[in-house]
Design a protein that fits this description.
This protein has helices at about 20-25, 70-75, 110-120, 140-145, 165-175, 190-200, 235-240, 250-260, 260-275; strands spanning about 1-10, 15-20, 35, 45-55, 60-65, 80, 85-90, 100-105, 125-130, 150-155, 160-165, 185, 205-210, 225-230, 230-235, 240-245. The longest helix has 15 residues, at about 260-275. The protein contains 9 helices and 16 strands. The mean pLDDT is about 90. α5 (about 165-175) packs parallel to α6 (about 190-200). The chain is an alpha/beta fold. Strands 6-1-2-5-4-3-7 form a 7-stranded antiparallel sheet. Helices cover about 30% and strands about 35% of the residues. It folds into 2 domains: about 1-90, Translation factors (Elongation Factor Tu (Ef-tu), domain 3), CATH 2.40.30; about 100-255, Rossmann fold, CATH 3.40.50.80. β9, α4 and β10 (about 150-155) form a beta-alpha-beta unit. The structure holds nicotinamide-adenine-dinucleotide and FE2/S2 (inorganic) cluster. Nicotinamide-adenine-dinucleotide binds near residues 108, 132, 165, 187 and 191. The site of FE2/S2 (inorganic) cluster has 12 residues, from loops.
């Protein structure tokens, strides 16, 4: 059992859990993830390690409770999680490149957070552009403000920051003389990462995206997380989750993500009915 010592709701359906997992906390590096099961019968859910405290032996996970398994994780019945396997995946390659823009869409901002923090700690000048559908869905704004030079916010309904998508603000940053970044990191919905990559491609700005295809084992054996990058088959769990945004086949990724959507919604509704 991995005790959950703090469980805070930071947005509708989004929880921040602090979990005691000393061996993961000691070894994890930015960009890596764990696979979590809430109970022995639970589904395996990949979650990015948003932060860690090696001294305290804890890791921070940000979980969007969208289905039965993620709801079980945020409920943490019995005070803990059954399994926390990791750290998994390739760590982010963090270098000193100068000015960097980190773009986070919705819950993807939780994945972006450790990358932005590591980039700032390495001496880069980090601007964060984060967005959500409305104000309550914009997460980690204050936390990013602790180390980013600027945190620019967008909402689709205009309830906070600029009205519109994060990509509108990114386009302005790319067009402004003297503010062009050396690299862009983007994490969020697939159409957002595709749109970011299309903005930076003509300018040949290095663009890194973090992909979240369906994962099962997290060790490169099941093939569930297969993605095509630069015409080659890659497995996000062992070769990623970060890839060159200009080389990802986003249309294939989106189609694979949607494969089980209808079945999943039916199953989730059935589980909810059974629990009533
Ligand atoms: P959302 O759909 O509400 O979008 C959040 C923001 O992303 C929007 O407000 C907008 O600013 C931007 N965005 C969305 N679509 C865009 C487009 N077509 N062009 C430009 N910008 C766009 O996001 P949400 O519901 O909070 O997040 C859920 C999504 O994030 C899911 O699709 C999930 O799979 C993905 N996600 C990805 C990762 C990852 O590692 N890549 C991690 C967590 C969540
Ligand atoms: Fe099975 Fe990546 S999750 S190969």
């Amino acid at each position: 059992m991995f005790p959950v010592i703090s469980n805070e709701q930071i947005a509708p359906q989004v929880h921040r859990l602090v979990v005691v997992a000393p061996r993961v906390a000691a070894r994890r590096r930015p960009g890596q993830f764990v696979i979590v099961r809430a109970s022995p019968e639970g589904e395996r859910i990949p979650l990015t390690i948003a932060d860690a405290d090696a001294k305290a032996g804890t890791i921070t996970l940000i979980v969007q409770a969208v289905g039965a398994s993620t709801q079980d994780i945020v409920a943490a019945r019995g005070g803990g999680l059954e399994d926390v396997a990791g750290p998994l995946g390739e760590p982010t390659a963090i270098g000193l490149v100068g000015r960097v823009v980190c773009v986070g869409g919705g819950v993807g901002t939780a994945v972006l957070f450790p990358l932005a923090k590591a980039l700032a700690e390495a001496g880069n000048e980090v601007t964060a552009v984060i967005g959500g559908r409305s104000e309550p869905l914009v997460i980690l704004r204050d936390e990013l403000g602790q180390f980013c030079t600027h945190v620019l916010v967008t909402t689709e309904d205009g309830s906070l920051g600029r009205k519109g998508f994060v990509t509108a603000v990114l386009a302005e940053l790319l067009a402004a003389p003297g503010s062009r970044p050396a690299a862009v990191y983007a994490v969020g919905p697939v159409p957002m990462m595709k749109a970011v990559s299309e903005l930076t491609r003509p300018l040949a700005i290095r663009t890194i995206v973090s992909l979240n295809p369906i994962m099962v084992d997290g060790t490169g054996m099941c093939g569930g997380c297969r993605v095509t990058v630069g015409g080659e088959v890659k497995f996000a769990c062992v070769d990623g989750p970060e890839f060159d945004g200009h080389k990802v086949n986003y249309d294939e990724l989106l189609s694979r993500q949607n494969t089980y959507k209808e079945d999943y919604c039916r199953l989730d509704a059935a589980v909810k009915r059974a629990g009533q």
